Prior knowledge:
Number of strands: 0
Number of helices: 6
Distance between the termini: 27 Å
Shape: globular
Amino acid sequence: MNKKLIKQSIFATIFSTLTIGVLTILTYKTEYGVFLIASFGSTMVLLYGYPESPFAQPKNIFFGHLLTAIVGVFFLNLIPLPLYILIPISVGVGVGLMILLNVTHPPAGGNPIIVIMGSVSLDYIISPVITGSVIIVFFGVVLNRLILKKKYPS
């Protein structure tokens, strides 16, 4: 096996565990609120497995998650449609806006589904979306720039 691939795999395992672990501890062992959403798991794949991808850049991670969560909250609270119509339209609008604004982050495409199915409040934008994304980007910079000495963000 390729030593570079093994090293990348090991660091991706460690930092995915560490990042999601911190978000999980903040969610379940503090009174600060929710820091964890399912789409962050997919973010780990891009951030630690393929950090050179445009989809794994901090701007895309942060604004992709933020934008699609806002779209989900907007549709949930302001568009009176049945869920089976609301969910696909909100995902489509979120994906379209990410592409239009050049902040595409594929895992964030699931955020409108999470928002609408969970009937979350506006606070959801701050925590977990903004705070969780900032923590994720921080760990991504630490691993990729400081430990692996990669040009990240690229």
